[in-house]
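Final paragraph of the annual report: two paired records, presented back to back.
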Amino acid sequence: MKKLIVSGLLSASLVSGMAFAGGTAAPVEEAPAPSGLEISGNVDVLVGYQLDSANAAAAPLAGGLTQGDLGIANAASSNHFRFLVDQVEIDLAKEFGENLRVRADIDASDLVGTVRGGGDVFSIEQAYVTWNIGSGDGAEWLLGKFNLPLGLESVDRNENAFTTYTPGFQFVLPTNVIGTKIYWAFTDNWSLDIGVVNDLNGAITGNSVMPTGFLRIGANWGDEGNESYVNLGGAVGPEHNVAVSASSSNGDLDMLGVLWGQAALSDTWDLGFEGMFRSTSSTIAGGITQKAVAGQLFAIWEASDLWDIKLRYAMLWDLDPVNAAGDGIGASTTSSTWGSFEGMTHTGTLGATYAIADEAKVKFEYRLDLANTDAAGAANPLFHTGVVEFAYSF
C-alpha cells in the first residue's frame, strides 16, 4: 500500500569560514530529518441485491447482505437493494527513533452493527504501540487494541479475496481484541504471534479472573509473487468462569482452534482453506457450553494481469443440542445477530476481480446461502445475493 509521508525536513546550515590557506573546507554536517507521520487507508463502497425465500424468517439466519453484516434485515419472500459505504479508513502511524512506533486505525461507516463495531459513527479499529526487539530475523512487542492474528479473512473487507465474509468469520472468530502480543520472525520462513487479551470478543473489561492467551505459528515458502503459507493458531481462557452469577462459576474454559493456509499451485492457480473450532462457556445459569465448527475452501484463477476468477464453499455447524435448557444462542461472538439457530449453513460463492489500477479494484460476487436447521418442522431458508464492491487503497 502506498503511504503518504508527512514530514518536516530540517535544512542544514552551510558552514562558512573556508580554510583557504590549507585548501580544505570545514565539514558540513546535515541535521537529521525527524520521522514523519505516515497516513494510509482505504475507501470501500458496495452495491448489493438480496432475494430471500418464502421460508426466510426475520431471524436467525440471513444471506450475503445480512450474514455478511451489510446492514440488511432479511424477511420472508423479500427483495433488498442498497448502495453502501462500507468503510472509510484512515491509518495513522509514527516512528520514534528506530524501535518505537505508534499506530491508530480510524474507521467510518454508514452501517449498523458492523464487524468493526460502528454504525453511522467513527470507531477505533486498532490503536497500539510497538517496540522492536532484536532477536533472530526480528521480534516486535505490541500493546493496545489490534486485529487478532487468527484466521484467513481480514476485518478490512478490501483486503479479502471475496467481498462477503464467511459464517465462520462472522459468528465464530474474534476480530479486534485488547491486550498485548509478541510477533517473532525467527527464520525467513517461520514466524509466530503469542499474547494475552481481555477476552476473545474484544471487550475492554471482562468477568474472567485472568486474561485469555493465544498463539499462532506459521510457515511460508515460494518465490516472490508465488508464495504459499500455512498457519496454526488457538486461544484459551476462563472468560465466563464467574459470569453465571455473582457468587458461582461454571468452571468452563473458552477455547478456539484455527488452521488456515493458501498454496500457489502454479503461476495462475491458488488454493486456500480454513477450518476452526470454537467452544464458548455459557453466561446463563444452568446453560451448556456452546460449540461450533466452521471452515471454507476456495480456488483463485488469475485469468490475466487484470482479471481473476474465484470460487468458494463455506460451512458452519452449530453443535449444541436443539433448544438446550437455559441456553439457545449457539457458539457465537455476536449472539444478538446469530439468534437461536441450531444446525448447519452452506454457502457457495462465485466471484471475479478486475484491477482498475495498482491500488484500485472492483469485485463482482454472487452468493447462495442455505440454512439447515435441526429443530423439528423448522424452515430451511435460502438466500440469493449479488454484490459489487469498489475498493481503493492509498
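The closing record of the year follows.
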Amino acid sequence: MGKVSKNNRHKALSLSKGFTIVELLVVIVVIGILAAITIVSYTGISQRATDSSVISDLDNTAKKLKLHAIANNDDYPANLTSVDGGAIKFSPGNDTNYKYLPNNYTNPKTFRIEIKNGNSKYHITESTAPTPDITCPSGFIVVPGSTTYGTSDFCVMKYEAKNVGGIATSQASGTPWVNITRATAIAKSNSSCNGCHMVTEPEWLTIAQNVATVSDNWSGGAVGNGSIYIGHTDSSPGSVIEAANPNDGYSGTGQNSGNQKRTLKLSNDEIIWDLSGNAAEWSMATIKGTDAPGLATQTHFIYDMFPVEWNNPLLLMGGLADNVSPKYAIPIAQNWNGATGIGAVYTNKAFSYYGNQDLHFRRGGAFNGSADPNFVTQGVFHIRIDPDVNGASSADNGGFRVAK
C-alpha cells in the first residue's frame, strides 16, 4: 500500500475539522433572535385574539342589556342570568372574569361591565364603546365616569392629601394636609404627578353620586334607608385624624358602629376615605355672589350660618355646576335632606353680601360638624362657599384631594 502524501494528510485533517467557537456563537445568536421574534409575534397575536374576544363579549352584552331596558321601563337587570331571552354567555376565559354593575338609581340609568382576562382589561357602559381600563398612580383609585356629569373614568386619591416632604401624597398614615390656601392646594395638586390636578366639581359630584347609590354606604343597608355614613364629624377627637388602621373604617373615631364610618365603597368595589368629614376639601369651583340670585335673598340662618337643604326648592344645584342637581342625578333622592347624610350648603353671609367677590367651594365638611341629629350639616354633597380673603387665606381645617 502506498504512502499518503503530506499534502493529502493536511487536506484530510482540514476536512474533518468542526465549527469554531465564533461560528457556534453566531448560530446561537441567530437562533435566539429568531426565537424571540417568534415568541413576540405569538404573544402579540395571542393578546390581540384575547382583546378581540373581550371586546366582542362586551359589545354583544351591551346590546342585549339595552334591548332588555327598552322592554322593562328602562331598568337594567339585577344580574346577567335574568336578561330577556335567558342568561348571557361569555367566551371561555371571559366567563369567570367579568363584573356587571347595573345602576337603576341614577338619571340616566346606567350599567357597567368589566372584563379582565390576563392583560386584557376593558369595560363598557350604556353610553360608551369597549374601552381599556385606566391605570392610576400609587395611592389612587379608579372612579367610574358619570353620564350625568359628563365624566369618563378618572383616578382620585384614596385618602385626603398628606404632606410628605412637600409632596401631596395619598396614604393612610399621617394627618391630612390642612390649613392650606386654595392657591397652594392647586399648585401642590398639579405637581403631585404628571397630569394631576385638584378635584373638580364634576369629579366630586361623580364620586358622590356613585357612593350614594351603593347600598353598603347606607346605615339601613339599602339606598335611601337610614343615612349615608358621614365620617369623622362630631369633634371627638377635636381635630383631623389619620387612618391608623386602613382595614377599619372607624379608625381614630373611638367608635366601631354608627354613622361616623370614614370609608365609602364605590360601585366598582374601590374604597375611598373621608369623602365626608375629617378635613373639608377645596374644590376647583369658583363663583360670585351674583352667580346665584336665588340664594342671594336667603334669610334662613342657623348658628349664624346659611343652610340650603336638599329638599329646599333652591336645590343644591350640583354644586352650582351646570345646574345639574344631585336631586336630579338620583331621582329617588326627592325626600333626602340633611338628616340623610347628604350635607347642606353653607356660607357665612347671604350671597348678596358678597356681590362680585370670588367665592370658593370646600366639599364634604370637616370634623367639627353640627351635633344636631336632626340637621346633619356634613355629607358627601356638602358645600361650604366663602370668599378667599385677598386670594390668600387658608381655610381652617381645610384640606384637598388630587385627581388625574
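The chain is about 25% helix and 15% strand. This concludes the annual technical report; the extension proposal builds directly on these records.
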